[in-house]
Amino acid sequence: MTRQDLLLLVLLAAGLLGNGFATGLDRAFPPARGEPPTAERVELGRLLFFDPVLSGDGTLSCGHCHRPDRAFSDGRPTARGSGGAPLARNTPSLYNVAFKHRLFWDRRAGSLEEQVRGPLFSADEMGAEPGALLARLRAIPAYRERFARAFPPAGDEAVSVENLARAIAAFERTLVSDDSRYDRYARGQRDALTPAERRGLTLFRSVHTRCFECHRLPTFEAPLAMGVGVPSVDDGVGALSGVEAQRGQFGVPTLRNVALTAPYMHDGSLATLEDVVAFYRKGGGRALGVDAARVHEHVRPFAISDREASDLVAFLGALTDESARPEIPGQVPSGLPVLRAPRLAAQPEESR
Amino acid sequence: MKPLSPFLCCTLLLCLAPAAGAQRTLRVEAGGSIAAAIEKAPPGSVIEVEPGVYKEALTVDTPNITLRGIVRGSERPVLEGSGALNDGVIASGSPFAMTGFRIQHYKGNGVTTQGVDGVFLSDLILDDTGLYGVYPVESRNITVTHCTATRIKDAALYVGESNQVVVAYNEVHHNVAGIEIENTNDALVHDNLVYENTAGILVFVLPGKVQKEGVRTRVFRNWVVRNNTPNFGDPESIVGGLPHGLGIMVMGADHTALEDNWVKGNDSAGIAVLRLAPEHADKDPALEPMSDHTRIGFNYLLGNGQKPHPGVAQSYGGGADVAWDGTGENNCADLPDPATAVGAPLPSCLERESGAAPRAGQTAPRPAAARPSEAVIPAGAAVVRIRGMRYQPRHLEVARGETVTWLNEDAVTHTVTSGKGTQPSAAPLGSPFLRRGDTYSHAFDEPGRYEYLCLPHLDQAPMRGATVTVTD
Lengths: 352, 472
Description:
Helices cover 35% and strands 3% of the residues of chain A.
């Protein structure tokens, strides 16, 4: 036996032991929705995403609420808008938005490009006004040049609201999270999950807890609106459609990187994953006096032990993968400060 | 790179041989752990389990695993949840097969497959396994056969959001729902014994599912009898809110065909066709809530709707063999002559298909019930006449190689179906439903004793336990 043989043999053995056959959980992600990103658009989108020039008063960027260090959420129960005023709903993570059929808690946007316009032009949020925003961007040579390169052959015309939305959407479509320890386990690396996490994974797929029915593999979300009965005056999907039976429904959020995005639910009313498991364990809103018609029939009390509850939380922690986390640009073309410190400093006390 | 040495070549071959498809069999002895065997089983393994009690919840994520319970007479391995474990089996590996187990006392369900292509569940006895007995979801190419399921609080044999399904030769009783096909396409539900549940067979489309439609379910040759057990499900669930006394119910599904079923003694309705109620349908606007293109062909409907649940009586003006709420497009029924109907009258399928102007409320011409006995009996065949609810002779002896022909002379329909006691089996005798004058022949090439029964009448002693003995 030669040294080369020995080396190959060791590699082979390591391969067989450490990375066995793929399990039945190894499922392909659905195809990403919308137009495929190009490198120029992604880079332009990244700069725009972190540039406060987008907001009416030059203080807020997308990244102020969708913070990369919090899996693109903000750690607050509900978002803060223009001037620090609290908004109605919790800031959702942006990981894997490329796969989502509809955006916003009430699912009102059918594409990321449509979604971008929401907070951008909302007076309560970034408070931009289209004409003034385009004038500001056109006055910055670096943006003129980057827009022109990303959206040929439009020249100066390239700086448009449509292209701005397309660039930010292209950037957001790169925020893919599909290499968590759970994914490695699914692909056959048996020791990628701890025993508690494996027990939690089994509980997640139990017909007793029924977590898997809405948070579907492999994206851990579903293109569905569901009512789980978080007590709230917010009617969600029903407020938008006016349909009585949809009152209290919200889009099913992904659980990928969920350990990083506390607090939880559409209004951030549950501080920890332990709280979320406790909420569902008691039957969601059923236990809290919420009208049963607002709670999906699969959300029912389930008896599990405290150890099982903590196993579930442990499993959710195995869905963390930030390998696509982008770098925050050191500076942006507007020259405005990126992710200003005071907002970050105020964070920990407010996050409950 | 140098060519590999002979040593490494051999090692490689040894390593790769199991992966190349050689089937591996692992055996679990009584007192052992099935989960431990699953953990070390490579893809393609058959795990044989000796009779014994196994207090385990199993997760099968390895592809191509067969869990084979060894059945010796009345002995078989028991998966015991003790009322404390959640699920008997959760499987994600494709394909997945499980046979020969008894599964009991789980909180959630007996066997669930999630996202599996190729599911074979056979000869399982499921008792008191929580909400479901078997629960394949988001799966395809599913066969559930020769299972028995009892005392289950939602649906005993459930299939959801799946495609290409066969549910056949099962016996389900004393559950809330016997068989439920939900948001599922291309399901064949046939030759099942479905009795004394709250509701027998449900073909549903419900809200809040990714797969929105449920089309082309065919329900045929089932025995759906006395499904009058008071509902003991969770009243806040859709199935838990069903009235008792329902034989077969189509709600929201399209292109469902019901044919040759024996539907008898269901107190509210033998067959009900209706839309999904607005309070449920409105939760999911992408859902089409009507039952369209339902075809109720020839079924044997008798004595249904005689003591309807108050809810049914109120909605339909009483109970009957067939109830339709009048919604949906292109639904039709060909009812036998004495069959009763409530709600809106269903137009005849035959008239529509023969081009005649459909006339609501008109039942089809009755099939020629009293055909003359010009039945073809092969020359030299031994004949068993089915007359007066009896096989005559009840016990017949023939020589090897002889053909036996059964001739139905009764006004009611019978079958000649292999089976011991009240438990039918698939082979070797399996006649279609025999109307008066119909015959069925079988050539016996193997010596032995062949017991058989009549599927629609196996609750009547003279119509079971009949035999043909073949001498050498």
